[in-house]
Amino acid sequence: MEQHHKIIIGSFSSIIFIFMIVSGVLIYALFIRQDMQYNSLNTDLKDTQSKINEIANNLIKTKETLANLNESLKLQMEKLKSQTSGDFSSVIEDAIKSVVTIRTDISQGTGFIINNEGYLVTNAHVLVGGKKVEAITYEQNRLSAELIGYDGELDIALLKVSGNYKSLTLTNSDDVQIGEKVIAIGNPLGLQFSVSEGIVSAVKRPGLTDINSYIQTDAALNPGNSGGPLINKQGEVIGINNFKVGGGESLGFALESNKIKEAVNRISQTSLQKDLV
What we know:
The protein is α+β, with helices and mostly antiparallel strands. It has helices spanning 3-84, 89-95, 257-271; strands at 99-104, 108-115, 119-123, 133-136, 142-144, 146-151, 156-160, 181-186, 194-206, 212-217, 229-231, 237-244, 252-256.
């Protein structure tokens, strides 16, 4: 083979070799670039998925917040409706089922359920001298009542009847406003489950033991009302009807609900080792 042919073939081989090297480098660079783009895309997808999950969680939280807000608004509307309405009938219809007649062998009064396990309260003086106690429900069921304990200073007695019952709620009596409408449920002069309406005339009045924890009301109270609930327009107990001033009109007094809670829990802690309200 002639010399110039060898040079041509050698040059061509060199060109092919260089081309292969350059092609390999380019292919490798392209592979690296695609790998980088894939990793970048994968990272972007993960970020996007994370953002989607975050948006989904925010939507769930927003939905829950709106549901809670709607429920709160509904309760507020019902409360506002009850406050502006002059009709107590729906409150009475619901509350009266948790009120009972308290009867001993020598006296009669009123009580009300404070715990759905059958615990109820009345005035301690209603039970004085009695040998047996029974509670008569709104449906006229006669139940034997067990005395758990009493607080003589606050005139509160805690009783227990068998069975489960809907209870009344003892609200915060510090929120009671002078002038707000109230109802008293009881058994005045033996007339079972009678209802009288009035307003709160004053708060923090002194009672028979000079404890400034009595709500004054002009709702009619008579013998037999003792131990019954004084209820606001939301159907909550603000006090327990206790006494009226003899010879005066519209001068009834109820021990405020916060004191009822104190007395009941003091009695239940001593006798049952637990709080009831």
